[in-house]
């Protein structure tokens, strides 16, 4: 028997509140422990009364939890967020430090030394960020252990440059980070012609420039894979962008339309090669039957620019006409080898 809508909703709410409550309890323990360590260190050199400090510490803990909640810290799945999202925790701590520090200064004698407030908040901040990104910290330590102590070089990740910082590019970045982690992709950045997006961060990766900067960016950041993720550009613009990409040695892939991927039309996949219809902006017109192929059949055919998108497709079609020999000419050796 399937659960009713009400049962499913209640189950979701229960899972949500259980996650929030467990996170709040963990943060409370971290915050109190951080202040306990800081207070003990300060008490070793100064005369502090612990009983008089318990109340202010608990009040500051409550204020901090409220700040974290208001900033949306407990509404995020931290295992699936980028490191850039840690800024909201930092903002919450800065605001809490300013408010409680001002409150603490108004009283004489002060409930807590300002040094305890500052250092305690810094310790708690570091601990809370470390807990939320523990899996990445562990993987980083493991990588360094393999390199420094065992002399093993882990398999290098594929460095990805995404062309298009719109919805398709953002969705692709999220999927590469969280759904295809085992394929070892690292998103270096985005390319987008929108001036308002320049130097902005999307899924933790910066928009590095426009289409004119593709060649420079690929060389500077050692890009292995360029992924075109734009569907609202004309075929002429698309050809120009692909032409810029082909000036580099990076592999080029295309993301199908997001709606195709969602609705699974035409068995859409996450990444595919550049196809001829991407460049001409329309469906491919099949070769007519009965056409005279004597110009290429059983002849030696030279294809210039064979490693390009159009040249490679032309070469494949020529091969279907039974030529005597096909000579491929291009300055892109890697592209020729792939053919």
Question: Can you walk me through this structure?
Answer:
This protein has 339 residues and is of the alpha/beta class. It has 3 domains: 133 residues, no CATH class; 123 residues, Rossmann fold, CATH 3.40.50; 39 residues, no CATH class. It has 12 helices and 8 strands. It has a 6-stranded mixed sheet, sandwiched between helices. The longest helix is centred in the first third of the chain and has 39 residues. The chain is elongated, with a radius of gyration of 29 Å. The protein starts with a helix and ends with a helix.
N-to-C SSE string, H for helix and E for strand: HHHHHEHEEEHEHEHHEHEH
> What proportion of the residues is helical, as a percent range?
40-55%
Give the termini separation: 54 Å
Rg estimate, integer Å: 29 Å
What would the average pLDDT be, to the nearest integer?
Answer: 79
Number of domains: 3
Features:
339 residues; alpha/beta; Rossmann fold; 3 domains; 6-stranded mixed β-sheet; 51% helix; elongated
Short synopsis of the structure:
With about 350 residues, the protein is α/β, with parallel strands linked by helices. The protein is about 50% helix and about 10% strand.
